Amino acid sequence: MIDVDGIVRIIEERKAKTIGLQFPEGLKRQGPGIAKDVEARTGALVIVSGDPCYGACDIDDSLLDMVDVLFHFGHSRLMDDDRIVFIEYHHEVEVDTAIRNALPLLGQKVGIVTTVQHIHMLKRMEQLLIEAGKTPVIARGDSRITYPGQLLGCNFSATPAGVDTVLYVGSGNFHPMGAQLSTGVPVIAADPFTGEARKVDVEKIMRQRYALMAKAMDAKKWGIIIGTKTGQKRLELARRIKETAGDATLISIREITPDRLLSFKVDAYVSTVCPRVAIDDAGRFGVPVLTPVEFDIVKGLRKWEDLAFDEIKGE
Amino acid sequence: MIDVDGIVRIIEERKAKTIGLQFPEGLKRQGPGIAKDVEARTGALVIVSGDPCYGACDIDDSLLDMVDVLFHFGHSRLMDDDRIVFIEYHHEVEVDTAIRNALPLLGQKVGIVTTVQHIHMLKRMEQLLIEAGKTPVIARGDSRITYPGQLLGCNFSATPAGVDTVLYVGSGNFHPMGAQLSTGVPVIAADPFTGEARKVDVEKIMRQRYALMAKAMDAKKWGIIIGTKTGQKRLELARRIKETAGDATLISIREITPDRLLSFKVDAYVSTVCPRVAIDDAGRFGVPVLTPVEFDIVKGLRKWEDLAFDEIKGE
User: Fold this and answer.
1) Interchain pair B264, A46: CB under 8 A
2) Which of A168, A304, B75, B190 has its CA 20 to 30 A from that of A72?
3) Are residues B207 and B190 in the same domain?
4) pLDDT tens profile A72-126
5) How far apart are CA B24 and CA A272, in angstroms?
6) A249·B51 Cβ contact <8 A
7) Contact assignment for A48 to B250 by CB distance below 8 Å
8) What GO molecular function terms would the record report (chains A, B) (predicted)?
């Protein structure tokens, strides 16, 4: 549930006249209803962002420039800007069933990781493991990470090292695969929505990635993609890749789509934007789109067996 | 041909270190080659915009923020910003054949309009009409228009009034239809690329638009789309429409796509962005997307017979 009272309070405190609301895809449909509610209770003019939003790295800067306060929903704080209010979204779903199903798959010393949607249940996760006689370990990530035990799709720094197993509580494949590739420790994924638990398999994704890298070894012309989203700009990294690549063009893109990539006649791309783009959308692109880690492997700067997901690190 | 010497000169004069290049779709493939050339000759770092670009209204602000100078190709100057250099693209194609084929369709007093791609041939167009015994008329548009006789897809103010026929020299349907609807004068389109001339027919497009307006009359929930592109922001207009619409949400969108519109459960949209979006892409949207002019007709603020294309006016 989104706390409209809290939003109204902030608007009144700040005497804000123009308000922006930005939702991730799953919450967007609630936009018009919340906008109407907020307008009726505060008299402020509300504008809802209609552009895609995939994370706290993905602030709608254009909308931000038009409003006094931007409420960004569903993600934990990533940058400090007084004009942006981050409003997390916590799923009201219990984790007990999924964790009980995970227990037989876990070792003794278990690192716990999850996403912000379930972070309020972290104590409960820890307690369930202790009750089962396990030794839970929760680590603090780098400066990009708000909570102990929290993963982002671009940052697995809160994954504990020196454990027998990592328990990922949440849905989806990307986060647990990233955690496994970044630590080498086997990851068990427990999904609170289905109650199911399973061992995470990274083999299929690795096979795909190696095939793309092999194809990119023939590339003569490269495109190096620079993101323009606030939390995804890695210009220095792009510049370094360009120097290694040889015949390469720096290309800035906001949303990466197959037709935007087809506009340029290059043989392969390296994407320095959100690490998920190269991997999640690989099947949609006509040419190989590599992560910076994969580019280093292709250029012999990193060993083939050291494949990991690209991460955007904090400090 | 793009004048790389001129670009190099500007970079040297300004001692610019980081350069942006922004091309419309038709010129994008030239991006990597020009970038390479400019880098080799100036030592500057060049970034090419990979986002779509539909006009001088569509400046890549994110790229602009990363560079010392942004070269924007293919469109005439629309706004004054010292960091942006507009480089027009003039097609090297003769207009004689198309105009000769147009002659039998023209009245005595003929208004001439064209796009920036052919504007350097305006004198030749005038001369051909004089030689054929016609009386050519060329008008100056409002402040959004750089050259006498120049049309934009969002501005037909240079279309002369009080003439028997308007002669449009250029390709495409949108500009001549807009010119005809804005003046009520019959328009003859002469296409220099094919050499053909024809009478412009607005009936089909009007039938489509009336059908969409009829459908939108049942709309209960409205979405009012605000553009975030520099030259397409019409917040005051959007606010005015919202007041008339009743149950309406202001939604900011950068690139309008069918799936972005489907994210919100509204019955119809009014688009205050580039006027072409509502019309060119009508068939792709699941719900009616009206222009502000059409919204006024639906709400009884304008007569049904006064349908015109939406324009973004200058002063």
Assistant:
1) no
2) A168
3) no
4) 999 999 888 999 999 999 999 999 999 999 999 999 999 999 999 999 999 999 9
5) 24
6) no
7) yes
8) 2-(3-amino-3-carboxypropyl)histidine synthase activity; 4 iron, 4 sulfur cluster binding; metal ion binding
